[in-house]
Specification:
Layout: H1 2-14, H2 19-42, H3 47-58, H4 61-104, H5 113-133, H6 143-169, H7 172-207
Helix pairs in contact: 1-2, 1-3, 1-4, 2-3, 4-5, 4-6, 4-7, 5-6, 6-7
Pfam families: HAAS
InterPro entries: Perm_prefix_1
Keywords: Membrane, Transmembrane, Transmembrane helix
């Protein structure tokens, strides 16, 4: 049984992806190997020999890792798309409210507003497309990197957009509570999306 644990530990170190999906995959592989060993042992084979044969039949970690990594890469791509869709539209709505309030107070809109809005809309479109495509059996090999860099770009745009709000859209003295809420939400969203995009990029590189 030790050879099985060594096997799954070696395989686990080769893989990157969503922690839950990776843990579930490793657990299923361990359970499958354990069942094979149990069947061989019941047939009269010594446990250590049964474990060696089970591992040999399943394939070496180097042989198994590519298919496992691609499955995790698709899962991470989908996860990054979900994080993007859970953060960018909400922040965009908050920014639009702030810009509207600024307009009502007679403040000129920043010239960066249309560009930032367009970037947020484009990122959301890519996230929706990735979410749909990852439901298919055949996922383009370039999609994970596209999603990773889209997520990275969106995460960088988040604090920049909030900075525009802080400096041009609203007088902080009059709307400090709204700005504080948007700033806190932006920080949390930036962290979640940037980390997910980074993992997605690492997965794509390993899968490539």
């Amino acid at each position: 049984m030790n050879s099985i644990e060594d096997y799954v530990d070696e395989l686990a170190t080769e893989l990157r992806g969503p922690p839950r999906a990776k843990a579930r995959m490793i657990r299923e592989i361990r359970d499958g190997l354990t069942d094979t060993v149990a069947a061989r042992t019941d047939a009269g084979q010594p446990p250590e020999e049964a474990a060696r044969h089970a591992v040999r039949e399943f394939g070496t970690p180097a042989e198994v890792a590519p298919s496992c990594q691609w499955e995790l890469t698709v899962a991470q791509t989908r996860r990054t798309a979900l994080v993007l869709l859970a953060t960018v539209p909400v922040l965009l709505g908050c920014w639009r409210v702030a810009w509207t309030l600024g307009g009502e107070q007679g403040l000129p809109a920043s010239p960066d507003v249309p560009l930032l809005t367009a970037l947020a809309g484009a990122a959301t479109a890519v996230g929706c497309a990735a979410l749909v495509i990852t439901r298919r059996l055949s996922v383009p090999g370039t999609l994970p990197l596209v999603m990773a860099w889209t997520g990275t770009a969106a995460s960088i745009a988040m604090p920049l957009t909030t900075l525009v709000l802080l400096t041009t859209a609203l007088p902080p003295a009059e709307n400090w509570a709204l700005l504080l809420l948007i700033a806190a939400g932006t920080a949390a969203a930036h962290s979640a999306l940037a980390n997910s995009a980074k993992t997605c990029r690492q997965c794509a590189v390993r899968a490539g």
